[in-house]
């Protein structure tokens, strides 16, 4: 079988797409890429649908051997990937050939990175409409688990890539330390002092952080000790636990929760938050639902515009590898 | 002493290869010491006391590349498998390539730190339970 062979697994490397969003009512966590935007950008760079399965790695990237020809793109946390010992850039479509070895290496900044593979991504079977891995319940992805040395990931051969030369975007360095939120469903259950405290103090991400959620370090928020009925959770919900510390619920979050939700981080800012290091101090800023929607739409549009641009440029010089036969003929002379 | 004069002394000292400079001017006295240099010197002097300072420095640099086990990722460093258990390695112990010498906890996952070459642990550079940065030296080895 042809595909991608795992030479070294890296840390918590999994197959992810945009998530198993339709089965949360039945108790299945949605999962999917924790940095949704980075995943979508990686797919756009290699001309995939946004829902194509990518390889997500955490802190330590895997080493992979390709046994087919295709195009790849790396996004998310900063790495210095090497293809056959030559450094390849991030955020750019790169051709790979059979026998090539890609060493992604350790993340210098950020926590999660993505590798997209052209031709519709990693061809693992869909489970409940998604190729995402949910480790906790061993569901989906590659056998419901993290990748291991020796695994062979099925992918398709790809010979052509329209406007290959322009398929790159600059690596953004985001220095903002403000994370915007909209009021959560239990916002009014908190005293004015508690609300104020939540907005003025600086937070750090604690060691208690994984794909399910990030517990934050900061001064305790006074919380009402009265019980509430469990409610459905939403991506980016900020729960306040009994001891007053916030937990931001992320991709692998439980589907219901009983802690009061003070805030919901806006989708456009979640990618920033999940990539913060433990040392990064940040604070929460209140915004409204209109801004939240506008910001997310802008983010989506940015990638859509890139797709359009690459589509338009496909007949402009330099024309990317456009026909398989032409490549073979080119090699002859 | 005037501030400007002190400033120029610091500049001169910074550009020189001196490790320590003492200037006495009437009542006031200023002592400048290059700690980084001395720090390295201490490490290397343990290995060899006879070599000249310049040679010592290069020796340490080589040492750093070859005989240090660094953190493969950001996280919390532990010297033992669990609290209360004895550490994986102690100074003076032999380690072999691929041997687990410590653990780094990151994102709730425990990652073993492994020796990249054979050697003897000279020094554990980081205390148990401290937060470490990517590529931070954890162990000093000797042949």
UniProtKB/TrEMBL annotation, chain A:
This is Carboxyltransferase domain-containing protein. It comes from Liquorilactobacillus oeni DSM 19972. GO terms for molecular function: ATP binding; hydrolase activity. Keywords: ATP-binding, Coiled coil, Hydrolase, Nucleotide-binding. The lineage of its organism: Bacteria, Bacillati, Bacillota, Bacilli, Lactobacillales. It comes from the Bacteria. The keyword Coiled coil applies. Residues 286-313 form a coiled coil. The keyword Translocase does not apply. Gene3D superfamilies: Cyclophilin-like. Residues 25-302 form the Carboxyltransferase domain. PANTHER family: 5-OXOPROLINASE SUBUNIT C. Pfam families: CT_A_B.
């Amino acid at each position: 079988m042809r595909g991608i062979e795992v030479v070294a697994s890296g840390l918590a490397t999994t197959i992810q797409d945009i998530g198993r969003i339709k089965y949360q009512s039945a108790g299945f966590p949605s999962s999917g890429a924790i940095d949704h935007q980075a995943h979508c950008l990686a797919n756009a760079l290699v001309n995939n649908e946004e829902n194509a399965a990518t390889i997500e790695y955490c802190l330590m990237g895997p080493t992979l051997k390709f046994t087919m020809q295709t195009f790849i793109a790396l996004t998310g946390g900063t790495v210095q990937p090497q293809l056959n010992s030559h450094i390849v850039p991030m955020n750019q479509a790169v051709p790979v050939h059979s026998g090539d070895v890609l060493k992604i290496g350790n993340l210098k900044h950020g926590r999660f990175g993505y590798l997209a593979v052209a031709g519709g991504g990693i061809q693992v079977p869909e489970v409940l409409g998604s190729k995402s891995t949910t480790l906790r319940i061993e569901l989906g992805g590659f056998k419901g688990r993290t990748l291991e040395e020796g695994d062979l990931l099925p992918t398709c051969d790809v010979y052509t890539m329209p406007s290959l030369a322009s398929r790159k975007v600059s690596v953004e360095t985001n220095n903002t330390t403000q994370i915007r939120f909209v009021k959560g469903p239990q916002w009014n259950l908190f005293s004015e002092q508690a609300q104020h405290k939540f907005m003025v103090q600086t937070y750090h991400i604690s060691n208690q952080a994984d794909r399910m959620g990030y517990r934050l370090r900061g001064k305790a928020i006074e919380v009402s000790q009265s019980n509430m009925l469990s409610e459905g959770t939403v991506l980016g919900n900020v729960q306040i636990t009994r001891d007053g510390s916030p937990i931001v619920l992320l991709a692998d979050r439980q589907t219901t929760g009983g802690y009061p939700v003070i805030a919901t981080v806006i989708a456009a800012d979640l990618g920033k938050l999940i990539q913060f290091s433990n040392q990064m101090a940040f604070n929460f800023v209140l915004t409204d639902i209109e801004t939240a929607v506008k910001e997310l739409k802008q983010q989506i549009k940015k990638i859509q515009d890139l797709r359009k641009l690459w589509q338009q440029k496909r007949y402009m010089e330099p024309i990317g590898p456009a026909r398989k036969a032409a490549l073979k003929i080119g090699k002859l002379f | 002493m005037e501030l400007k004069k002190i400033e120029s002394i610091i500049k001169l000292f910074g550009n020189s290869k001196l490790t320590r400079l003492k200037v006495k001017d009437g009542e006031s006295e200023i002592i400048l010491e290059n700690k980084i240099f001395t720090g390295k010197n201490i490490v290397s002097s343990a290995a060899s006391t006879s070599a000249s300072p310049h040679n010592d420095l290069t020796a340490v640099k080589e040492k750093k590349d070859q005989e240090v086990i660094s953190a493969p990722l950001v996280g919390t460093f532990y010297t033992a498998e669990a609290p209360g258990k004895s550490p994986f390695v102690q100074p003076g112990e032999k380690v072999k390539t691929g041997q687990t010498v410590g653990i780094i906890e990151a994102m709730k996952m425990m990652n073993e730190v492994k020796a990249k070459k054979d050697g003897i642990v000279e020094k554990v550079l980081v205390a148990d339970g401290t937060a470490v940065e990517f590529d931070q030296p954890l162990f000093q080895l000797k042949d």
